[in-house]
Amino acid sequence: MPLLMVELLLDAHALLGESPRWHAGESRLYWVDIDAHRIHRTDPTTRRTETMQLDGPVGCIAPRAGGGLVAGLKGGCALIDVWGRAPRPFGQQVLADIPEQRFNDGCVDAAGRLWVGSVTRDKTNPAASLYRLDPDGSLTKMLGGLLTSNGAAFSPDGRTFYHADTPTHALRAYAVDPATGMLGEGRLFHQFETGTGRPDGGTVDAEGCYWSALWDGWRVVRLSPAGELLQTVELPVQRPSMIALGGADMRTAFVTSAGKALSDEERREQPHSGGLFAFRVDVPGLIQPGFAG
């Protein structure tokens, strides 16, 4: 397979860039800088970026079907009704009294439910969880015993849910009932070798293949529905954090990255760490559903 040309779309210098989400109706890429407490929306044509400053970490965002955003914050989920307006809490603020956790990665299923997981500050304490936030505000715990909930994505038919507990280096696939939102049996989807990068954020394309950004791996990879490695795209940064597919034809890959906790030497080797990158793909992505709440 020919090498793909990776473009630095925005030299953002993000501390912890994450959660890129393509908004097809606006032709904009929404994404966050978790540690800088910022939500961005970028026009990839003009490269103009608008920024919302929040007063705490924002782990993930997703467009709402009726306009605005849903966000996973420090203590719980929130709704942003209009760009620039302060978030208002939505659903149980389940992490409000757990200072060592915050919400992290999340995605919306075809029924408009947000699947959002938490992360623990202490990576020896498997106390994080994956939750499902329904449009009525009810919050259901789906998985427990996690360290860093990541990689949430659904197969095109909505019957397989992909998930990573990043420090385990493993991606898992779960049967899911699209109607009820209940998880069934899980299986190992792909195990990455220790020292080659850990699976962070991911997305699924129209062929049902799963793209994963490998933290400390300098690359993103495309896996078949059977978990076989199909494609590797090398990046000029050590810590790609998540990938999304979008653009007018849904054939542009957008990759966020992190620039925090690097040594001076590492920063010299990767001056664009924390940047937003883009490259073209052959298979388009799927337009993501909006949160129905």
Automatic annotation (TrEMBL):
<protein>
    <submittedName>
        <fullName>Gluconolactonase</fullName>
        <ecNumber>3.1.1.17</ecNumber>
    </submittedName>
</protein>
<dbReference type="GO" id="GO:0004341">
    <property type="term" value="F:gluconolactonase activity"/>
</dbReference>
<dbReference type="InterPro" id="IPR005511">
    <property type="entry name" value="SMP-30"/>
</dbReference>
<feature type="binding site">
    <location>
        <position position="150"/>
    </location>
    <ligand>
        <name>a divalent metal cation</name>
    </ligand>
</feature>
<feature type="binding site">
    <location>
        <position position="18"/>
    </location>
    <ligand>
        <name>a divalent metal cation</name>
    </ligand>
</feature>
<keyword id="KW-0479">Metal-binding</keyword>
<dbReference type="GO" id="GO:0019853">
    <property type="term" value="P:L-ascorbic acid biosynthetic process"/>
</dbReference>
<dbReference type="InterPro" id="IPR011042">
    <property type="entry name" value="6-blade_b-propeller_TolB-like"/>
</dbReference>
<feature type="binding site">
    <location>
        <position position="200"/>
    </location>
    <ligand>
        <name>a divalent metal cation</name>
    </ligand>
</feature>
<comment type="similarity">
    <text>Belongs to the SMP-30/CGR1 family.</text>
</comment>
<feature type="domain" description="SMP-30/Gluconolactonase/LRE-like region">
    <location>
        <begin position="16"/>
        <end position="258"/>
    </location>
</feature>
<feature type="binding site">
    <location>
        <position position="122"/>
    </location>
    <ligand>
        <name>substrate</name>
    </ligand>
</feature>
<dbReference type="InterPro" id="IPR013658">
    <property type="entry name" value="SGL"/>
</dbReference>
<keyword id="KW-0378">Hydrolase</keyword>
<dbReference type="Pfam" id="PF08450">
    <property type="entry name" value="SGL"/>
</dbReference>
<feature type="binding site">
    <location>
        <position position="102"/>
    </location>
    <ligand>
        <name>substrate</name>
    </ligand>
</feature>
<feature type="binding site">
    <location>
        <position position="104"/>
    </location>
    <ligand>
        <name>substrate</name>
    </ligand>
</feature>
<dbReference type="GO" id="GO:0005509">
    <property type="term" value="F:calcium ion binding"/>
</dbReference>
<keyword id="KW-0862">Zinc</keyword>
<feature type="active site" description="Proton donor/acceptor">
    <location>
        <position position="200"/>
    </location>
</feature>
